[in-house]
Write a structure and sequence with these properties.
The chain is α+β, with helices and mostly antiparallel strands and 158 residues long. 44% of the residues lie in helices and 20% in strands. It has six helices and two strands; from the N terminus they run ααααααββ. A two-stranded antiparallel sheet has the order 1-2. Helix 3 crosses helix 4. It is globular and about 50 Å long.
Length: 158
Amino acid sequence: MADLAYISTLPAANQALFQAKIAKKMSFTEIADRMGRSETWVAAAFYGNMPFAQEDVDALIKILEIDPISIKAISPEVGFQPDRARLMETPPRDPTIYRLYEIVLVYGYAFKSIIAEKFGDGIMSAICFTSKIEKEVDDEGTWVKITLRGKFLPYVKY
């Protein structure tokens, strides 16, 4: 389910992608599977945070049956560059996004310390990065499982 108020603030080409996705009643998982990409990456690209390669644009035109002119602005041929998190409020007001923000506020230093203990002095990349969102159900309820996988980048001495 997309946040229509937020989508209305996106560039026209990104809005066109969402309009076509909604009209086709497709999930990010369905689109990603047909594109050969991850659902998280595809969703981030719809929001303008990742650049589409030309083969991605071509696939979207076929999958969503969308007018190529309506999404030309996000194609590599016009030199599209992502404007990552350009409209993000801090702290975020959306409850789901706020909970993710809260996790970093509460557990951030714990994550940092454990990464340092296991890997040394460095960071987890958000560029060489993948993520996965899964649904788990057990006797205690329904759970969201988010896996973040970032390449470890050690700080260099110079």
